[in-house]
Structures are given as C-alpha cells and as structure tokens.
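Exercise 3.2. Students should predict the tertiary structure of the chain below and write it as structure tokens, then compare their answer with the key that follows.

Predict this chain's 3D structure.
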Amino acid sequence: MVDTKPNGKPAAAAPKETKEVILSVRDISVSFGSQTVLDRLSLDVYRGEILGFVGASGSGKSVLLRTILGLNKKQSGTIRLLGVNFDRAGDAERLRLDMQIGMLFQQGALFSGLNVRENIQVPMREYLDLPQRLMDELAMLKLELVGLPANAAEKYPWQLSGGMVKRAALARALALDPAIVFLDEPTSGLDPIGAAEFDELVAQLRDTMGLTVYMVTHDLDSLFSVCDRIAVLGNKKVLVEGTIQDMLAADDPWVKSYFHGKRARRIVVEGNDADHVAGAAH
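Answer key:
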C-alpha cells in the first residue's frame, strides 16, 4: 500500500539512513626515504560492511594496513576510528581503541610455543585482568564461533591444517569482541573449498556479531561473493571504490583487466543475469 498525504498525493519517501563511518582515512601520505608509497590517500569504511581492498603487488596495500594499525609512520593525514583521531587520543582512549581492532595476519602468525587456547588468550592477557577460568571459557567460545572443534584448543600450530590455522588466528582476532577486524589475504594458501568456507564464515560473523571487516585480498571469489564494497589502490591513491557492479563498469585499465580478465568468473550482477566468464571462455 502506498502511503499518501491528505491531498491524495504520494508522501515523500523517507530519507535514506546515513551510513556510519567507523574508520576514516584522510589525506594519508607515507614515504620511505625518497620513495612515496601513499600520496594523500583517503578512504572510508562503514560500520557493518565487508570492504575488499585490492591492488597490484607492491602498490601499498600492506603499507596502508600497517599505517592504520600504527605500525608505519605517516608523513601527513589523519586516521579516525569510531570518530576519534588516533593522533590526538590520550593513553586511555588509545587503549580503548586498540581493543576495538582485531587483526588476522596472512600466515596466521600464531605463536608456535603456545597451543590454540593460549594463542587466543594472548589479547586477553595483554589488555584485560581476568581469572584463568574465565579466559579458558572465553577461548572455548571463540573456538566454537569460528567452527573449530573443542579438542583443537590443546593443539599447537604445527598440528593444525592450513584452514585450522586461519580459523584459530581469526578466533584470536575476535578475542576482545572488536568492532572492526582486519584480514590480510585470509584465503591465501587455502584450497577452493576451504577458501569458500572461510568466506562464508566471515559473512556469518559479520551478520551475527555486527562486525566490520577490512579485507586485503587478491581472491576474486571473495570479492564477488562476500564483499559489500571494493576499493582499488593504484597510483598511490584509491583509484575507484564501490560495489562489484562499479568495478565491472570502471574505465581504469588495471581495474578492467583485473575484473574482466581471464581469471574473472561468472557472476550474477544484482538485478540482471550477466555473464562474466572465466578462462578460455573468451
């Protein structure tokens, strides 16, 4: 039923809900010696979305990620998380912000001398003062959350498959119930089935926990299947950002080559059955 005004004319549509920016990067420049890697780059990440961040090898994806995390020094620009400027945050506020960030490194980066339960508890020990029994219970909850069996808790990283390592590292990233999780090439090294299952897990966690996900990836399947938006890094800035439809319509030569190249796969564009065929189909 169409809502109408008293005069019988259709009522004006309600204004669209404004998206909340959870992470704002503004005019970031990063140089190493005389080499400028990022030049006045800007990017917004919205609460509850899965953002896929892509770019050619060596374009600066990892540099931007490390700069956001405070591991690289920037020459200019501002980074805001939850509306707070990192550079102006006091110690207590910076600690609070750090607890809102989870990080999954490309190879998992689990501590080899700790079992899975102890690895998950590392952030808890660093930021919280909790009794051991409670940390054990929380670690088991995180294990269940990422789809690992309870007996994985006492295993060491060398006893795990590649997919289990990724899930254990994700459980550690979720240890403090962060607002945003950074994933660095999360499906690299996984077979297609394992990669698809991991993508599905990320989407489920976003939906059930309200997570925001910043995913650095080269995996076209991940970009097509789980990312709400994609940002492409090139020429030291964000070349284009938007939905997968925006990527397919972009004129930039690198973007066209990436999303229409031989490794692109058949997808269904929202609202239209459009074939984007992989491999020798062209």
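Discussion points: Confidence is low (pLDDT under 50) at residues 9-16, 266-282. The CA atoms of residues 19 and 110 lie 35 Å apart.
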